[in-house]
Specification:
The chain is of the alpha+beta class. It has one domain: Oxidoreductase, molybdopterin-binding domain (Sulfite Oxidase, Chain A, domain 2), CATH 3.90.420.10. The chain has 8 helices and 12 strands. It binds ligand MTE. Ligand MTE binds next to loops. It is an enzyme of class 1 (oxidoreductase).
Length: about 325
């Protein structure tokens, strides 16, 4: 993400790696990738905490991006706007114990320990495409559970039309929060039907293991048909609301970052096109990929927006 006027692609973003990591995938890739055959759908590491979790529905049979690429190139403005620095600085965040406050239009508000949430919500692996608004993309084996299943347990009232998510505010450790840029804490939101959609995940791990701090530990959102900035990290609060929440990037630049933020090659960002994307880990010479509407999840989610002009509600 870019705060206002910086150019969108940094030279430091271009890497030479075109590998698939995790031990099993790496070995297979050495033989299979060169033959142009798609890798199997599991992104499991054999020894990680979540090595044995089942593969969930909607998991794409796509080659996964190398773990090293995904964990060393992170957008986490609470630590730094530099993608390499944020991966290192985020190590300082203490993620245990962790709890989530549930508030607003809901019958069962309260403060819930993450451990208890996890007892009620068994995890599964899903390989999803992920598309950043900055026009790069990756494929990640996430570990988590459907957000809707979790939300239902709190019994939203009929007034709950939106769900707002808030990241932890801890400027002592999150040094990016000491200065401006975004109005801290980071806030994101979804319409209730988007939040309840079975594709939407709460994520606690990746590559068969716990989520690294820089990727949003211990609990983050993943909404695969929307630009990555909707996928808020380190969530400490979930609030059900009647009105559309004001979200961090929208507040920062409303003409650049809409509330809906559905991936859409036909709607350019005011400062760059969204028609193509650079695949993270690919070489400088690899052609960019055509961006897919709803990031390729149109069959599942287009109906949510059938009565909306997506150029207006971008
Ligand atoms: N959540 C918080 N709290 N702070 C952030 O800076 N960046 C967002 C999103 N969630 C961000 C965040 C953006 S712009 C993107 S593209 C994704 O996280 C990046 O996720 P990744 O670093 O795991 O690739």
């Amino acid at each position: 993400m870019l705060i206002k006027t910086k150019s969108n692609i940094l030279s430091s973003e271009i890497t030479d790696r075109a590998v698939f990591e995790s031990r099993r995938e790496f070995i297979k890739a050495a033989t299979i990738f060169s033959a142009g055959i798609m890798l199997p759908s599991s992104g499991h590491a054999e020894t990680g905490k979540y090595a044995d979790v089942p593969i969930g529905p909607y998991s794409a049979k796509l080659p996964v991006t190398g773990r090293e690429d995904v964990t060393s190139y992170t957008n986490y403005y609470e630590f730094s706007s530099n993608k390499k620095d944020s991966t290192v600085l985020a190590r300082a965040l203490k993620t245990k114990p962790w709890s989530v406050e549930v508030a607003g239009e809901v019958e069962k508000p309260g403060v819930y320990n993450l451990e208890d949430i996890l007892k009620d919500n068994p995890v599964q692996e899903r390989i999803y495409r992920f598309r950043c608004v900055e026009a790069w993309s990756m494929v990640v084996p996430w570990i988590g559970f459907p957000l809707g299943e979790m939300l239902k347990r709190f019994k939203p009232t009929s007034k709950a039309k939106f769900v707002e998510f808030t990241t932890i505010y801890n400027p002592e450790v999150m040094i990016g929060q000491r200065s401006g840029g975004l109005d801290w804490p980071y806030v994101e939101g979804l319409r209730i039907d988007e939040a309840m959609h079975p594709l939407t995940m709460m994520v606690t791990g990746m590559y068969g293991d716990e989520l690294p701090n820089q990727n949003g530990a211990p609990l983050r959102l993943i909404v695969p048909w929307k630009y990555g900035f909707k996928s808020i990290k380190a969530i400490v609060k979930i609030r059900f609301t009647e009105n559309m929440p004001e979200t961090a990037w929208h507040k920062n630049a409303p003409n650049e970052y809409g509330f809906y933020a559905n991936v859409n090659p036909e709607v350019s960002h005011p400062r760059w096109s969204q028609s193509r994307e650079r695949v993270l880990g690919s070489s400088l010479f690899t052609p960019k990929r055509d961006t897919e509407k709803f990031n390729g999840y149109g069959a599942e989610v287009a109906a949510l927006y059938s009565d909306m002009d997506l150029k207006q509600y971008f």
